[in-house]
Specification:
The chain is an alpha/beta fold. The protein has helices at residues 38-46, 128-131, 134-146, 175-187, 199-207, 220-228, 252-260, 281-287, 299-311, 329-336; strands at residues 2-6, 12-16, 27-35, 58-59, 63-71, 83-86, 107-110, 119-121, 150-154, 159-162, 167-171, 191-196, 211-214, 230-233, 236-239, 243-246, 266-269, 290-293, 320-324, 344-348. The chain has ten helices and 20 strands. Helix 3 crosses helix 4 and helix 3 (134-146) crosses helix 9 (299-311).
């Protein structure tokens, strides 16, 4: 099988590897489409320890949709030909392999495979290409969920429900930012604005129905006041934004929240940013603001994302702007890093 092998900074090789041997409780899946994550771009551009934990000389990639092609004799939870989403934390039965499950290889061996644990079934209403975005969309969905106010449980569906009619702003129009914006609307936000510096990516968000703001060209304060109306803050009237969500990682976003956030507003961070920050706790106390972290996702996010994708409410496949074969993996990763000219980039595998 062909496999993308990471060899260090700006160094990737496509190698022919032997097909994995399938044990009694293992499942072999064939990848259909795999999406390129921002962490894949980071580790390619800057070297090891700058994205997911990717080992030199190893397979990598973790955003994928696959089909079952072979099962061990003690596996009864799956059927050959079934489409599945490999859950990165558990697909290799090793949580340290979350970013290196072999999404850029033609096949993945899933040891000790368990349904709705290491492999999730994929809704038949979702295309193969769009299904490759389940993983990043679950990250965005979890971040949006963290920014909602719980309102109980729907007894009919046994799903969490949230306070509706609030407003949110998302910083970052990449896949996770757009996923968060979509999830906000799905959960009941009244209005959502997406902010970025790339007109290319903002156009994608606008075409999905969101208000947009180019922070490099527009006055955020003026635009936000116009879109959301105003509400009180400790420093006077400000935009009526209930939740600020950072999917970009720029240091000034938190500063803007402290400066412009209304009373009882909340800030969710999902972007990777390890900078040490100072915080005015007295301001947070008197303004009754909240800062909330969001990392990874839970099974409920997998199911909600599939419902979002299957609903057809948004043309989510439109954010996939480029498609490459596995032999062009390096070019695909380079393209994914061109934020002014690309949205989501996927690898399409040849399937018999």
């Amino acid at each position: 099988m062909k496999a993308g092998i990471y060899l260090g900074q700006k160094n990737i090789e496509i190698r022919e590897l032997e097909m994995p041997e399938v044990g009694d409780r293992d499942v072999l899946v064939q990848n259909l489409y795999s999406s390129i994550c921002g962490t894949d771009v980071a580790v390619y551009k800057h070297g090891p320890n700058t994205g997911h934990r990717v080992n030199i000389g190893g397979e990598f990639g973790h955003e994928t949709v696959s089909r079952v092609v072979k099962m061990g004799k003690d596996v009864f939870d799956f059927s050959v030909g079934e489409r599945v989403y490999p859950y990165p934390r558990y697909a290799k039965n090793d949580t340290t392999r979350a970013g290196t499950i072999g999404g850029f290889s033609e096949y993945i061996l899933v040891p000790e495979a368990k349904r709705e644990h290491s492999l999730y079934p994929v809704d038949e209403r979702i295309s193969d290409k769009l299904a490759s975005l389940i993983e990043p969309f679950t990250v965005g969905c979890r971040a949006a969920r963290r920014g909602m106010i719980p309102a109980g449980m729907d007894e009919a569906t046994k799903k969490s429900v949230y306070v509706k009619g609030q407003n949110a702003v998302v910083f970052g129009a990449g896949t996770i930012g757009i996923a968060a914006a979509v999830a906000f609307m799905y959960f009941g936000m009244n209005n959502v604005m997406v902010c970025d510096l790339s007109d290319y990516r903002l156009t994608m968000a606008k075409n999905l129905g969101f208000e947009i703001c180019n922070m490099d060209k527009e006055d955020f304060r003026v635009k936000a006041n116009h879109i959301f109306g105003t509400a009180p803050s400790l420093k006077g009237e400000t935009a009526n934004i209930d939740c600020w969500l950072d999917a970009a990682g720029a240091e000034n976003i938190l500063e803007q929240f402290i400066e412009l956030g209304k009373i009882e507003s909340r800030f969710v961070t999902v972007a990777v940013n390890n900078a040490i920050r100072e915080l005015d706790l007295l301001h947070m106390t008197y303004s009754q603001k909240s800062i909330i972290g969001s990392g990874g996702y839970m099974p409920e996010d997998v199911w909600d994302v599939q419902e979002i994708m299957a609903s057809g409410r948004w043309n989510l496949e439109s954010i996939i702007t480029h498609e490459f074969g596995i032999d062009d993996l390096e070019k695909a990763i380079q393209t994914a890093g061109e934020v002014a000219n690309a949205g989501n980039v996927v690898i399409r595998f040849k399937v018999d």
